[in-house]
Amino acid sequence: MNFFTLTTRSLPGLLLACALNAAPAGAQIILTPVTPPTTPPPTTPRSTTPEPAPRADLPAGWREVRGTLRPDPARPLPTLPPGTQATLTIRDSVRPDTPLVRVSFPVRRLPTPYWLNFNPSRLQSGRRYTVQAVLTDAAGTTLWRAQAPLPTTTRALLPLTPQPTTP
After folding, report:
1. pLDDT at 165 (0 to 100)
2. Distance from C-alpha of 55 to C-alpha of 66, rounded to nearest angstrom
3. pLDDT tens-digit map of 88-114
4. Within the chain, what is the greatest distance between any pair of CA atoms?
5. What is the per-residue pLDDT for 46?
6. Do residues 116 and 133 touch, judged by C-beta distance below 8 A?
7. Whether pLDDT at 86 is above 70
8. E strands of the chain, at which residues?
């Protein structure tokens, strides 16, 4: 039987003809309709997200903040220019000009992962600390910026979404 000469030209008819031609004698072919789910799968609330596993090389007593620099779905970032650098810092609200931790690395696209390790003995009780991400071009001009409160857990996931800076 040639499926090109069938009188039925519907897709199910063509698929059945192909399956019948390829099936050995005595084989059964069962076509099961697939229906899409009516509701989206449930999402896990952010508060119940398990704490990430510790890095093996993290010194005892130190803290780790890691996450992803990700684009904002409502305002997608244009293509990052060559030479773009990401600088992540942990800053004290009392002394914002003196970062406690600073890490810089090249970025070619978003999303991109990051992680910061630090000794919590450098933090003073009663002060507020933030994690700041700044994306700069090759000339050092600030393009995008994101900021969030520093998590207080030993290991934390902190996704950051950079927004364009205002000129």
Report:
1. 77
2. 11
3. 999 998 888 888 899 999 999 889 999
4. 82
5. 46
6. no
7. yes
8. 63-69, 85-92, 99-106, 112-118, 129-136, 142-149, 155-157, 163-164
